[in-house]
Amino acid sequence: MTSRWQRDGVRVVRGDRLDADTAQTPGMDRKAAVTFARVGARKLWAGTVHIHANAKTGAHHHGELESVIYVIRGRARMRWGDRLEFTAEAGPGDFIYVPPFVPHQEINASPDETLECVLVRSDGEAVVVNLDIEPVEAPQTVAWIDPIHRD
To answer: What is the DSSP string of 52-112?
Structure first.
């Protein structure tokens, strides 16, 4: 006798079985782990991204989706805005939140280390809209102040 949870319960996606056949942006290698097609996820997309040393992605956004990026290794420099006029950095253990429709670009701030991150988005399908943006030369650094932990 088989329980429905055996068939419709927890799924384990092995790290060596990620799917590179997902929406891509020039300058990064995305691999999908949790998607609608792979596990039936309706409200989540999760996977990994690698950006080579001293490399950057093209400008893009993810439509209506919210995104979370968790930095595993390396130094992430994010640029965002209509002309990528704002910037902030994150390192290992940091989370980055990207709201819907925000034009952004990921940059590996390290000259010699691969940037490795985990991505999670708020839908089971990958949405990537690549943009042709002429970025400002000197973006403004933004220090985000957490409204809960102000010190």
So the answer is: -TT-BPPPEE-TT--EEEEEEES-EEEEESTTS-EEEEE-TT-EEEE-TT--EEEEE--SS
Query: Do residues 123 and 44 lie in contact, with contact meaning Cβ atoms separated by under 8 Å?
Result: yes
C-beta neighbour count of 147 within 10 angstroms: 6
Largest CA distance in the chain: 65
- Can you give the pLDDT at residue 99? 96
Spatial CA neighbour of 71 closest among 98, 103, 48: 48
Counting the structural domains of the chain, the total is 1
In the block, tokens 């042709």 appear at 132
Strand-by-strand arrangement of the 104-108 sheet: 129-130, 60-61, 104-108, 76-80, 86-90, 140-141
**CA–CA separation, 92 vs 73, rounded Å?**
5
Q: Is residue 86 part of a domain?
A: yes
pLDDT of residue 101: 97
- What pLDDT digit, counting tens, does each position of 22-53 carry? 888 888 899 999 999 999 999 999 999 999 99
Domain contains 6: no
What does pTM read for this prediction? 0.87
